[in-house]
Amino acid sequence: MAENAAVEIRDDRDHGNLVAYEGGESAGTIAYFVMDPAPGALVAVHTVVRPEHEGKGIAGALVREFYAMAAREDVPVVPLCPYAAKWAKRHPDEAPEASAELVREAERQLRHHPELF
């Protein structure tokens, strides 16, 4: 599905959410955290699109913006979210692969973020 150009995406860093808005309402979210020490990698934990917005390319637009945001901040992405990991494999030119060591450390640090489970 093509990504929806009418979606506005905003980063709510304080709450660890990258949020897509369509027609002024929240349509989807990537829940994430920033690895310590800051500025560490951005770790995508969950990607969720509200049912009424599914099939419009919102999840892909969110993941693409998540990688673009990390690139602007010059930090890597660790896609622990299954959707984000699958998207990254399909778009290797936009989604550099995280090292196995970085993935292990992200998984360890995720245990310190119970709000993301």
From TrEMBL:
<feature type="region of interest" description="Disordered">
    <location>
        <begin position="94"/>
        <end position="117"/>
    </location>
</feature>
<feature type="domain" description="N-acetyltransferase">
    <location>
        <begin position="10"/>
        <end position="99"/>
    </location>
</feature>
<keyword id="KW-0808">Transferase</keyword>
<dbReference type="InterPro" id="IPR000182">
    <property type="entry name" value="GNAT_dom"/>
</dbReference>
<dbReference type="Pfam" id="PF14542">
    <property type="entry name" value="Acetyltransf_CG"/>
</dbReference>
<dbReference type="InterPro" id="IPR031165">
    <property type="entry name" value="GNAT_YJDJ"/>
</dbReference>
<dbReference type="GO" id="GO:0016747">
    <property type="term" value="F:acyltransferase activity, transferring groups other than amino-acyl groups"/>
</dbReference>
<feature type="compositionally biased region" description="Basic and acidic residues">
    <location>
        <begin position="102"/>
        <end position="117"/>
    </location>
</feature>
<dbReference type="InterPro" id="IPR045057">
    <property type="entry name" value="Gcn5-rel_NAT"/>
</dbReference>
<dbReference type="InterPro" id="IPR016181">
    <property type="entry name" value="Acyl_CoA_acyltransferase"/>
</dbReference>
<feature type="domain" description="N-acetyltransferase">
    <location>
        <begin position="1"/>
        <end position="107"/>
    </location>
</feature>
<protein>
    <submittedName>
        <fullName>N-acetyltransferase</fullName>
    </submittedName>
</protein>
